[in-house]
Design goal:
Elements lengths: L1 H8 L3 E3 L4 H14 L9 H13 L7 E3 H51 L4 H4 L1
Antiparallel strand pairs: 1-2
Helix pairs in contact: 2-4
Amino acid sequence: MRIILSQVTAYLPARLPLGVAAFEAWAASIMALLGPGFENVPQDDIMFALAGMIMHLGPQTDRVSKRYFVLSLRKIASNQVAGEVMSQSKQRQAERAAKKAEEAKAADTAQTLADTAPPSDASKA
């Protein structure tokens, strides 16, 4: 019953924390709402992201739903995964391009050597 109540109240705007102890309690309540996929994320990383989100809120904003932070954290995590996938893809593309250029250079060198080689005795006959 308590979990359901916290999930329902997460949709209601709540005061932003004032003080370190309040921030830690508030962050823990948001982490409890995150669900699967955040088990291996260090608590400090989540708290850093939450602090950054608060700092980017407008100057007149003193109440925000916890659901906003949950959804934002999920989006941030998705962005990090997508960024890593893109980085790995670009690296593989660069490796393929380098390999292709190396093969083309080797083929060009082989062709140049074949063009500049002296004629063999078999071609004289």
